[in-house]
Amino acid sequence: MKAAHYLRAMQGIIARELWRFLRQRERFIAALVRPLVWLFIFAAGFRAALGIAIIPPYETYIMYEVYITPGLIGMIQLFNGMQSSLSMVYDREMGSMRTLLVSPLPRWFLLTSKLLAGTAVSILQVYTFLLIAWFYDVEAPLAGYLTLLPALILSGLMLGALGMLLSSVIKQLENFAGVMNFVIFPMFFMSTALYPLWKIEESSELLFNLAQYNPFSQAVEFARFALYQQFNGEACLYTAAALVIFLSLAILGYNPSKGMMKRKGGG
Amino acid sequence: MRNEDVSVLAVENLSYRFANKRALDQVGFEINAGECTILLGPNGAGKSTLFSLITHLYDSPSGSVKINGFDVKKQSCQALAKLGVVFQQSTLDPDLSVLQNLHYHAALHGLSRSEAATRIEQELSRQEMFERRFEKVRQLNGGHRRRVEIARALLHKPSLLLLDEPTVGLDVPSRTAIVNYIHSLCEVEGIAVLWASHLIDEIHESDRLIVLHKGIVRAKGTVAEVNGLVGATTVSEAFQKLTEDKTGQEA
Are A257 and B59 a contacting pair at CB < 8 A? Predict the structure, then answer.
């Protein structure tokens, strides 16, 4: 199997995901509206109630909008990861996932390429969100937008892998809504996306521990530091480890010997 | 090029279970280049399961599937490289154009952009769909979608084509066109075809048959051989006799 084949296949999978995304304008708008509502309405409302002390990577007092921006970046990627897995469940039910899985390439490569494609889409969404936030005076150093990119790739892959893992165990589309409630909301609210860890610790020790070990928190912190041109090694390692675990389990879940492809009737 | 001595697909002692339900039991057959083999079976016979095993969507704990001599389990990339598939349900992306769907498939099979463009033009032209290449799949009717799926399955010049009830839901002219086209692929280009169907009228005299019922191969061979096996004068009669037997014994 030639390297060119792998490269073309990966390009094809990413191109398809981008074509689909650009054709589904409502999906793009929905992906942006969600974090913008949080930024414009929730953050504005809670600005006075939630004071933020000086914590790394910030060197001065910041507005609450500035604090939650990395959390909202994480939110975009979390929802995108779940959206991708939703589309994988749909694709599997409708059969188009089969086109991918019967192609002459190793399954791990196909799934990783699909993951990269989903991450590429989420990065487009994040930068569009940051551009709008810029006009709302939520600004980071210019170079920070560049140093953010590797963090977005890693966190996008990790959250996409989690979605892929979920799609490998969900047999029917109808089951997905429940999983959204049991995965997205706990992950988002039990994290540092909306409040810093020290604030969570003040209210509950248990919640503090859950938030600290929540991979979503680590992805958010990795992005938060990267946006200010700082490297958070611990968050990076933690996010990478979570990616390896989720992706390995997802590949195992899509192994043909597991027979997880939903059985179609008729024959 | 046609070489009828080459076994393009070899299935041996293949069994599969869904929990407590036996889906396939010791299924075995071979298909050579240029042969059009019709896999006949009523609903629930195990046809789609067999296709899932041949395409490596499932793995079987017992038996083997070889495509052009490559084991689907152990050498899946080589085995799947020369396989074209048209699934029972449409697997085209309705939100993308015909061209985008075909470029996606070409990329998965490692075709360069220029190779892909040439092959897409050739295959779509053969299906009289080239003029409609920029249309979204969603805008096409069922017959045209099927034509695009057949063009897609042939893009990478497979030696084996699997068709899982490709004519279901189509009108008579569309069905006839597809049946004739597939048979011409076998005769002229030497492609081996395995065609799952329960529509007897799609069978040509020159076809080979495999009758599958309750996961067991009840009969296989030429039309005349299968008819002769149960003393039937038509395929329809033979099919009825072979599938009404409830003892589970292979004919």
Answer: yes
